[in-house]
Amino acid sequence: MKKVLPILAIALFTLSSIAQTARVQVIHNSSDAAASTVDVYINGNLALDDFAFRTATPFLDLPAGVQIEIAVAPGNSTSVGDAIITVPVTLTANEKYVVVADGIASPTGYNPAPPLTLQVFPMAREMASNSANVDVLVHHGSTDAPTVDVVETGAGAGTIVDNISYSEFQGYLELPTADYVLDVTDATGAVTVARYQAPLATLGLDGAALTVLASGFLDPSQNSNGPAFGLYVASPLGGALLALPVVPLSVSDFDVSNFSIYPNPTSEKLNINTNGIDLSQYSMIISDMLGRQISKGVTNSDNSIIVSNLNKGIYNLTILDGNSVIANKKFVKN
Questions:
Q1: Structural domain of residue 267, as residue ranges?
Q2: In 3D, which of 258, 255, 228, 233 has the Cα closest to residue 243?
Q3: Are 219 and 228 in contact (CB under 8 A)?
Q4: How many folded domains does the chain comprise?
Q5: What is the reported pTM?
Q6: Is 271 helix (H, G, I), strand (E, B) or coil?
Q7: Which one of 42, 62, 117, 276 is separated from 184 by 20 to 30 angstroms, measured CA to CA?
């Protein structure tokens, strides 16, 4: 069993032996199941053991002014020789950095599958530049999400992030401490993909500096049924990332062509990915290819339908608002 080192005792370095240091926070945002926990080595020495997906370290002191090697290995690694990636970096003395692990390590099962990488943002902050504000660093770390905008609709701030793509950072937003509603839209701003609450005032975050990450998959069915898309917050103090609460969209807010169902084919249960739309008030009809209605009802609380009682074949799933058809999807029952 690997020895668990205290996070602050990074590798073999002690503060007394380091002439120059930089402050670094590391965030695990790789949604690949094969990287659900990883080991992090610095210059060949184990620094973080079993570092879990959607967690962050606090800001740590690392050597500056000299090249160091940061290596990421599977959680069951025995040495740095098991590393998946190794990234050489030279940090600037007295600078602060946020480092985010994104991407896919598995050779199959994910589409698209950009490789596992470490994205580095310099000039990071541990507190807001103005104590009346909350400073927010935004990072797009969802491998299958397109270029998006973030539009604030609660306080009327409008577009606060414009055309951010996978792996990119948006420099710090210096936001007055208030409760916000964030719409994630396509790059045109015309289609709202999801809506989230950002209750900065309610949570008493005056003076805080945070990192908000797009995390998970828009279409889990194409990505080994991995974690769904969401916005998550990392605190400078580290720990588990906090999920921003989802605000259900109305059907009029959403381009229904973006509904997806998975797994397809299926044998037991059909999941409906609605990107935040609450389907509990809508009805579902399953019909065969001759148009005969097989069943009618509503979804389970997790937006799923049990189909184990159906015979093998191809079926239509129709979502209705009263008598109006919202969406129609084909699926195969094994």
A1: 260-333
A2: 233
A3: no
A4: 2
A5: 0.76
A6: strand
A7: 117
Which stretches of the chain score pLDDT less than 50? Answer: 1-16
pLDDT digits (tens, 9 = 90+) for 305-324: 889 999 988 888 888 777 66
Query: Which tokens belong to 108?
Result: 């199959």
Q: Are residues 242 and 264 in the same domain?
A: no
162 and 267 inside one domain: no
Residues 132 and 264 reside in one and the same domain: no
Q: Do 220 and 286 lie in a common domain?
A: no
Determine the Cα–Cα distance for residues 68 and 45; give it in Å rounded to an integer: 11
Same domain, yes or no: 312 and 176: no
SS3 150: strand
Tens digits of residue pLDDT in 118-147: 999 999 999 999 999 999 999 999 999 999
Closest CA to 287 of 305, 303, 263: 305
Examine the domain organization and report whether 153 and 128 are in the same domain. Answer: yes
Alpha carbon 27 to chain centroid, angstroms? 11
